[in-house]
Amino acid sequence: MPPARKRKVRLVAALSAAVVLACALVYTSLLGSSEVVTPSDLVTATAGTSYQLTGKVVNDSVRTTSDGVDFRVRDRDGSTSVPVTYSGAVPDPFREDREVIITVRKEGATFVGERDSLVTKCPSKFTEDATQRS
Amino acid sequence: MATVGRALLILALVVALYGIAVSIYGALRGRDDWIASGRRSVYAIAGLVTGAFAILEIAFLRSDFSFATVASHSSTTTPLFYKASAAWSSQEGSLLLWLWMLSLWSSLVLFLTRRQVRRVAPYATAVLLGFAAFFASLLVFKETPFGLLATVPAEGAGLNPLLRHPSMMTHPVMLYSGYTLFAIPFAFAIGALITRQVGAADWIRATRRFALAAWLFLGIGILLGARWSYVELGWGGYWAWDPVENASLLPWLTGTAFIHSIMIQEKRGMLKIWNVSLILATGILAILGTFLVRSGILDSIHAFGASTLGVPFVILIGVMTAGSIGLVLWRREALRSENRLDSLLSREAIFLLNNLVLVAMAFVVFWGTFWPLIAEALTGTRRALGPPWFDQYTVPLAIVLVLLSGIGPVIAWRKATASNARRNFLLPAVAALGLGVVLAIFGVASRPLALAMFVCGAFVVASVGQEFWRGVGVRRAMTGEGPLGALRSLVARNRRRYGGYLVHVGMALLFVGVAASSAFDNGRDVRLTPGQSVTTGGYDFTYTRATSEISATRSGLEKITFGAVVDVRRDGRHVVTLHPERGFYPSRDVAGLGPVGRFFEGEATSEIGLKAGVLRDIWTAMTPDIRKLLPTIKEGDRVFAAAAGKLPPELEGQALGTALNGIVDRYLADRPAATFRVITSPLVTWIWVGSIVVFLGGLIALWPGADTARRRVTARYAARVAQELGRA
């Protein structure tokens, strides 16, 4: 085979492989991902569907249970909140009014957190109050 | 002092802008004096920023709460070591650290290369000064570390307890060193493209060592973060595929590809476009990592909240990306390869394959990290991917990568013959497959991917070991040295090669540790009361008794710790006694909280119980159930509220101590229940051992070789002779 034709065949093969891999990547990404939502988005949540919920832990809502915590999560800049029941490892920085990310599924009126999916903002990154600066 | 600090930063910004202008002017006009002035601007910035950083450090060490950042990130009770490291726990402090690292590393590189790559260096200087100007302007206009408080508080908020870990001193410094060092080959690549000096001798040889240093520092920074997570955070893992973690991995992956593929350009004049593209991408990804932490564009546990730095970073990344693509397209003719690949069975081909795997990994990690934004663009809905998705792609790619790291060092350049392959691969392949069979017999075949990683890891260790064995044998035959002397001189004569081999062994050990601990760990979360047991991984964990302690510093009470004594046995035989604990620090926000309740409304940190072993780690963390104490805590707060203003301060402190002692005694008397996480995980230690081997190998490869030292002496000698001749 002439070198020019050989190069063309290689290019077509490489591009075809890249397209196939890209399609596989998109397909598995769509299949394996959870919708990122805030509490107000969960008003229309479907039972059994997995969501990645982000928001702030509502003050006075945390109740320690035998294998985890029950709490409410609210919008970052709003008051709409949803109840979450979670079992598994509770991160050390988990506290009221702190930002959390948790994978949940709707079960009845509450949202059940996936085991060990609760993460809390890294302590070096809490928003500080800069209002008093001169 | 704050005014001086702010003035130093403004001056650094002005000097950076001046340096950019004179460097470019000098390069265009061929004026060495202007070029030298541009280079000296970098040294000046290093001095100015060092001054600014010193002022901030002094403010932290003196607990000067007139500085807003000191008041919100330190306190008088923060230990001295952590006061020093608290300087970079804030957004503004970490930006200053970034600029400081950049200025120091840039100064070092420009000083060491001042007589090399003379045409490329001025443009590289301008690019480095451009980065310095960017970060200085952020610190001057957006996030100043020298902001002052209108009312100076008597006490600061303190450094978050979770950050009180020795890694706080090293992990950020290592990461930032890696990021800023990657800016250096990036800058030289830009200079090489502008001046059309794109050969290996033009820019790669001058900056190769710094790319390696960047790779090493970034890698060590990532691993220190993983270690911190494992021993400090109470979840038992070391990697979570969080966007910010991923962002640090991206430049490391492309940087790894770069330090391999430049060998092909140096040796054969090939892959010029690839190399320059890789380092440009690495530089952009390093900035992207910094951007992700500070923009809030993706939900990450490591991202700063309410940051306003997103737009400036997007502009910087946009300029870098557009400029890089434009320059590569402009110089595509000069970047043509001098040679072609002779055979798919050659070191060049294996290195190329290694590059493709690394770039594929980087692409997968990039895709998964940015998938929420991609999905939003495609479907209108933001979606996120979890660890299983990342694992399904990265695990097979990592196996191939480890296999290639065993083949690459021993396969011949240009074309491997059958006899060459037999000579180099037979023994390692037999050893690796033999180990695979043994492991399969012992049940490891139930996890085929882990088994494949063990086999590939063994292949790497065997092939590198064989290379060392042969090299030492040859040295001994040539010089008559003893085995250790021959090994030392073998490595000393070619540090880059043998340092690289050690890095490969270290990476193989690390990946074996990751594979074993991911595939064969056993963990359980269980609630126990004293005397109860749980079994996992063949070990019996018995909660023997509760412990408690009140810790005080010279400035007052620091924390209350509730812990457990856990007896671990296997087949009835005592293995170890572990002491997991949870420390409760008083809340920083005292409003509405009583003096007793304040201790239970603040941060709580886990101190894990760990027995690290060569074959297995036994890990525990505990969360005490303090619900029974709540009425007592409320009663304590009520009593203190009733006595408010009636007790002198010293008696109030004593009374608080007595009240807390009462709570501690009550806790112990109640035989309290606690929730335990117990994990037995094999070969975790090998992740850290592998990291140390990688670090040592990297240091060996970085260390100037005997030939480099000789060249430097010769150059100095030649300069002196020329000077003497000039005088004569």
Q: Please work out how many helical segments of chain A DSSP would assign.
A: 1
C-alpha termini separation of chain B: 54 Å
| Structural class based on helices, strands and sheet pairing of chain A | alpha+beta
Strand content of chain A: 25-35%
Total number of helices of chain B: 21
Q: Within the CATH hierarchy, at the fold level, what is the topology of the largest domain in chain A?
A: OB fold (Dihydrolipoamide Acetyltransferase, E2P)
Main sheet: strands, sense, barrel of chain A: 5 strands, mixed, barrel
Percentage of residues assigned to helices of chain B:
55-70%
* Multimerization state: heterodimer
Apparent shape of chain A = elongated
Helix content of chain A: 10-25%
Name of the CATH first level of the largest domain in chain A: Mainly Beta
- Provide the CATH superfamily of the largest domain in chain A: Nucleic acid-binding proteins
Q: How many domains comprise the coordinates of chain B? A: 4
Give the termini distance of chain A in whole angstroms: 76 Å
Coarse morphology of chain B: globular
Number of DSSP E strands of chain A: 8
Give the SSE map.
The complex is a heterodimer of chains A (134) and B (728).
Chain A lengths: L2 H30 E5 L12 E8 L5 E3 L2 E7 L6 E7 L11 E9 L2 E4 L5 E2 L14
Parallel strand pairs in A: 1-2, 5-7
Antiparallel strand pairs in A: 2-4, 2-6, 3-4, 4-5, 6-7, 6-8
Chain B lengths: L1 H28 L2 H30 L6 H6 L6 H7 L4 H22 L8 H22 L24 H29 L4 H33 L10 H26 L3 H24 L14 H21 L16 H33 L3 E3 L1 H21 L10 H24 L6 H32 L3 H11 L1 H25 L2 E7 L4 E4 L2 E15 L2 E15 L2 E6 L2 E4 L19 E4 L1 E3 L4 E9 L5 H13 L6 H21 L4 E9 L2 H18 L3 H22 L1
Antiparallel strand pairs in B: 2-11, 3-4, 4-5, 5-6, 5-7, 7-8, 9-10, 10-11
Helix pairs in contact in B: 1-2, 1-6, 2-4, 2-5, 2-6, 5-6, 5-7, 6-7, 7-8, 7-10, 8-9, 8-20, 9-10, 9-12, 10-11, 12-13, 13-15, 13-17, 14-15, 15-16, 15-17, 16-17, 17-20, 18-19
